Structure of Glutaredoxin:
Amino acid sequence: MAEIIIYTKSHCPYCVKAKQLFKMKKVSYQEIDITDNASLLEEMLAKSSGRKTVPQIFIGKQHIGGCDDLYALNEQGKLDPLLTVYL
């Protein structure tokens, strides 16, 4: 099964907000903290087509984007269908 991955940095309020939404939806995720880790930052940049902000969120192979993108999907009713395999 594919997984939910969130690239984060410590002290990032948007990362906390994104993780809170997943907790509210009762889905687990893998958090990859890129704080002070150049190789993980490079990994995130490669997977996200160069997006440097955190969080960067992936559901399966789909790049969701950041926190605002995640919440927009939720408000549009498009997040739950992506998460059904994880519930």
User: Anything to note?
Assistant: The first strand starts at residue 4 and ends at 8. Strands lie at 4-8, 30-33, 56-59, 62-65.
